[in-house]
Amino acid sequence: VAANLAYATANENTRAKNIYYVLDVLFKSMEPSNNIDVSATLQIPPVFTMPLQRLKNEKGRVVIEQFFYGDKDGFNIFNAFIRNFSSGLWRIQSNEQFVIVSSTSGTPITIVANKPLDETQDLDAKAQAAMHQYLMENNLPPSIVIHRGHSYYLRSTIEQLSATAKLVVLGSCGGYNNLNEVLKITPEAHIIASKQVGTGIINQGMLGVIFETLRQGKDLDWPAMWKDLSRTFSNNEKFDDYVPPHKNLGAIFIMAYQRLLERSE
Questions:
Q1: Parallel, antiparallel, or unpaired for β 98-103 and 220-221?
Q2: Most exposed of 84, 99, 118, 247 (fewest Cβ within 10 Å)?
Q3: What does each C-alpha distance from 24 to 11, 20, 42, 100, 160 come to in angstroms?
Q4: What is the pTM (predicted TM-score) of this model?
Q5: Where are the domains of the chain?
Q6: What is the pLDDT of residue 265?
Q7: Is the pLDDT of residue 74 over 70?
Q8: Does 49-244 carry CATH code 3.40.50?
Q9: pLDDT of residue 174
Q10: CA dihedral 38, 190, 249, 170 (to 10 degrees)
Q11: Rounded to whole angstroms, how far apart are CA atoms 85 and 12?
Q12: DSSP strand pairing (109-114 vs 62-68)
């Protein structure tokens, strides 16, 4: 990479120079002894943490939009999602098409999730549209968007993805293959995705930690959180397929390269 960077620089090939410069920084940053601050060097937002303040809206609230789909698996994972908020720390409101889960203490958090209504009648899509309309009508653009469903539903979620999302969780199998599509919509988002198989157990456990960390008023420290999650799921080999934001070199590369293009214009 260093040799290609030198060659591109010597030949004044700006596009190649930008590509190899970003790659050079990323590869060198993987060696701790190099002590490279990726965010500062590439002039991109922090990649090792997601500051709570960045997720809050102007009223100090974190808004989360979660997409479910109306097949049998969707019904099961939705019920597991609801059971996660049985304590007095959260309040659940429900209508025919979606639920609103709100924190009762700590950081104000609103989680809006559509119900996994019958996909054969397109009722899940209508519920998602109603959910999105509710968010827009109440001036609640989401800073976190979560896809809960099989990979063949992911296209639908991405088509509805809000540009305001700062954190995107792709809970389906192979979500990692859709980084570029997500970053076209929200270029500086942190993305959590699986390279292979996504599972409901891991998704729910991980999301529970994220929600509670935010409710407690803490930033999302990805290396520390991933270390804890690795212990929690030490007996689940599928967790190794999940890629956290600070190790998501594909997303970081795309973000940094776009920043270089913008600065050179």
A1: unpaired
A2: 118
A3: 18, 6, 11, 45, 35
A4: 0.89
A5: 2-36, 49-244
A6: 62
A7: yes
A8: yes
A9: 67
A10: 170
A11: 57
A12: parallel
CB 200 within 8 A of CB 76: yes
pLDDT in tens, 83-101: 989 888 999 999 999 999 9
With a CB cutoff of 8 Å and minimum separation 6, the contacts of 120 are 70
Average pLDDT over residues 136-163: 92
